[in-house]
Amino acid sequence: MIQGYLLLPVHIRKTMKNLLSVFILLLSLDVVAQVKEKVIYTCVMHPQVQKDKPGNCPICGMVLVKKTIKVAVSKSNPKNNVLEKIDTTGRNEGKDTLMKMNAMKEDSLESTMDHAEKDISVQPAGKIIVTAGNTVRYHLYVKDTLVNFTGKNKRAIAINGLIPGPELIFTEGDTAEIYLHNLLNEETSLHWHGVILPNQADGVPFLTTKKIGPGQTHLYKFPIVQNGTYWYHSHSALQEQSGMYGALIFKSRSEMQGPVGMGHTSHSFADDAMSMPNNLFNKEYTVVLSEWTDDDPKQVQRRLRTANDWFAIKKGSVQSYAEAITEGHFKTKLTNEWKRMKAMDVSDVYYNRFLINGKSENNAPEFQAGDKVKLKVVNAGASSYFWLGYAGKITVIGNDGNDMVPVEVDRLIIAPAETYDIVVTIPENMSYEFRATSEDRTGYSSLWLGTGHKMPARTLPRLKYFEGMKMMNGMMNLNGTMNDMGMKMSNQMMDMNSAMYPEITGEATETDTMQMDHSQNMSMKVSPDIVTLSYDMLRSPVKTTLPDGPVRALNFSLTGNMNRYVWTLDNKTVKEADRILINKGEVLRVAITNNSMMRHPMHLHGHDFRVLNSQGEYSPLKNVIDIMPMETDTIEFAANQSGNWFFHCHILFHMMAGMGRVFTYTDSPVNPELPDAEKAYQMFRKHKDQNMYHLMVRAGIEYNGSDGEAMISTNRSALKEMWHLGYHDMHGYESETILGRYLGVNQWWFPYIGFDYHYKKVEGDITKSSDYKNMFGQVSNKNDRQTFVVGVEYTLPWLVIADSRIDGDGKLRFQLSREDVPITKRLRFNVMGNTDKEYTIGFRYIVSKWFALSTHYDSDMGLGAGITITY
Amino acid sequence: MVIFASLLFSVKSYSQDSTQQKQLSQLLTQYYAIKDALVDGNAANASSSADQFIKVGNSIDYKLISEGNINTLLKDATSISESKDIKKQREIFVNFSNNMIALAKSVKLTAEPVYQAYCPMKKANWLSNEKTIKNPYYGNAMLSCGKVVETIGQ
Fold first, then answer.
1. For residue B4, what pLDDT band results from cuts at 50, 70 and 90?
2. How far is it, in rounded angstroms, from Cα A518 to Cα A500?
3. What is the C-alpha separation between B118 and A501, in angstroms, rounded?
4. Could you tell me which residues come within 8 angstroms of residue B130 by beta carbon, excluding any fewer than 6 positions away?
């Protein structure tokens, strides 16, 4: 061949040589783009010697010679260029995006995959990367905004004009600088959920970070030391419910970032496809789940506290006696109220809409047949659990920002604040639905991947509430304690709620499914062989074991009270309990038992913890653990931080009710934002978020008078005013004002003191009237009574309130009453009788959130009918 | 002025407190234990030392060694701990050592000198706390094959 070459004319040989050189150059350019050139000093006798500086060979002593090599580990100090972004999504409203490309490329090191022996079954891991990243800066402007999800304009809070807020993207190794500009009329904050960072950047006002008042700007600065899917949200008041949340994506250093340009998001799958050479997925997409209520979140919290069952009416989950009888569950309902429970729902709040990335329905037509898409799912919902379903299988590869060994399931439930990385495939050029259905199944949001003929996800039928009630009856003892029936449950392995799921019990029918797409010729019968993810199936790719030695064991029980909406750990709110002191270097093992009737997603700030499951040494690392009623889950973590870290239920309304604790490291360095640690902690305890009080009013206006009550209540106390006003003296006027305290986990005891005023004009001889003396034979003096009272209320089975009191005149009064018996969805019955020979019975028919039609018969004022206004 | 500048320089990087310094030192010690087990050709010891390495690694603050990096080390350590075959452990040890070397050069793991040695037969590096060559890739078969190519931390 060489002879042939030599026969060619010179100019052609030259051309060929040039072409060849160009070809090689082009080839090597590809290589050069990925490797770095380095100057070394080596020995001609011993080429393994490679030094940074000139010198002598340590083996033979000869002078080292200079050489340039292609692959090396470099420790250069890059210029830290600043990438400044004001808005990062394609949906920005015209804000300029300043960008400077970083001149320093990361040292990408040669993969050892090439060097691994072919006969080894286990592949070595990649290389670590120790070079510093960039400083990445974001400016976030938090402002009131108007939204319209339901046809009505409502107030919300947006970040840079967006709900969800902008997706913030960093790479492990970067330094984050996030400016929060508070353009609200109230204080605000941002918490970086799941992020390991210095305590002062954690974002909890007065616990870790200083107050950010109206008009102020705050800088959060911290190094990015993790990779994965995280999120951020307000940690002030109920702002999270109003729209202050967004995705936080930490790319790993081994992912080459695609070109950083205007509106770069992880939706730029073309770029991302290039940067993810793996066989699990070739594209990715961020999915932020949330909910929307047209109600002011403060009103939502108030209605939960005042046990207003308007939400249940909206959701159809009243579970009245009439419904019970129709469904053959009369005894179930009776037993339920006998055990002093009120109708339970899996979720407390009625939401108008469920959203993915701010919309009920989304389209991602860019995906094509053969794509494997990693969905980075964030549950930014304040209180909703979502069932995640797909028109196909789901492979779970990550949770709470940590990698998991891939596991294939049909569906999974995601708790508030959890994140899940899941992979779904697009088999054909059709449109496949990814659906997030709220746990109470009152609605869902959709994301359609691909274009073409629609393949919907499975519809989840409405819950069978009375089956759930029956199950709850089994779990609750008469004395209010829970009964686990000898089953040691943990890690979502046994979903007791599945008694309510028609798709599991095999009873799903056409009529059960909601919003069916009738254009599909698909059978809606679903198989009970649905594989649901549980925490027990999550396995870490590496061992997560912690150092041997003494383990500090802690126990908590999650306690709470649906009727009064008080949620606690060991029946103490965060401000009632002491801080938990921990020491750096300890290993903590925390067993949490859920002794309440609702599931709770418990979140620990600033740490990952192991969830001890059957995967043993490979127990997964998480930062939120959803604990179902009666489960005991055990978590474990290394105490390797410093400062204060909040541990709380991530259902916003439970957290606001006080369901949490604070872990405090001893010997922590001074927090530069809160230099007086004790003073700051007291401000945290006294903050209005920890000290809510709520007003409730129910006023009946009927033709025989006005009957009503008003109450201001906190977690533990209440000031109640009850009135009974006729229109004239013959009917009388009555007013009772009492102040009392709720005792016990179930808050059935309510001792009180108060003042009683009764006036009624009586014709004729007062001593002759039937109620002149009470049942104890004491002179009742109802007709002109102004006296102090001391008494105690107690909630009996069937939710009858037994009220025993003695007044300043030495008179006893014993009373039994029951309010709000749910006869039908909207009809309520109440009844009262006492030893002063007073009694009432009445009915109310709830027409709207604010008012009901009512009627009652009263021993003092006779029959009346009218309306009742409820606040 | 010089003192001021050097002070600035020394607080530039994330400073380690005594607990963290102890952890880094323990990490290196456990690495040495794996290396020594491979030198002895003892797969069981290599496996249990790898387990100890993992435990220390899992307790280190990510702000000291970031998640991606610690997981890379843990992945190899997990492979070594799971294997009963000294040959496979030695294969993984190549990449594992390269990563430990990179780590040792970027973070001060110990006050003692750390020696980087190179085996020309295997074309692989390892770290040792002594200058005497004891080759973990070949053990007794070629115990003294290799040379110290760098001293870290001096």
1. very low
2. 25
3. 63
4. B115
- Residue ranges in A769-816 assigned as alpha helix (H): none
Interface test mutation site (partner A, options B60, B72, B89, max chain A beta carbons within 10 A): B72
- Chain B positions touching A542 (Cβ under 8 A) are 54, 71, 74-75, 77-78
User: Which B residues 63-102 touch A at CB under 8 Å?
Assistant: 63, 66-69, 71-79, 81-83, 88, 91-92, 94-96, 98-99, 102
Q: Determine contact, residues A434/A375, Cβ cutoff 8 Å.
A: yes
Token digits of residue B82: 């799971």
Amino acid of residue A726: G
Residue A848 neighbours by CB under 8 Å, 6+ apart? none
* A279's tokens: 């066989």
Q: Name the E strands within A501-578.
A: 551-561, 566-569
Contact A254, A172 (CB under 8 A): no
A421 sits in which H/E element: strand A419-425
Helix (H) / strand (E) element for B71: namely helix B67-82
Whether the Cβ atoms of residue B28 and residue B104 lie closer than 8 Å to each other:
yes
**pLDDT for the residue A6:** 62
User: What distance, in Å, lies between the first and last C-alpha atoms of chain A?
Assistant: 97
Q: Which amino acid is at B118?
A: Y
Query: Low-confidence residues of chain A, pLDDT below 50?
Result: 28-34, 72-120, 256-276, 510-526
Per-residue pLDDT tens digits for A765-817 = 777 777 777 888 887 776 778 889 999 999 999 999 999 999 988 889 999 99
User: Is A225 in Cβ contact with B88 (below 8 Å)?
Assistant: no
ipTM given for this complex: 0.91
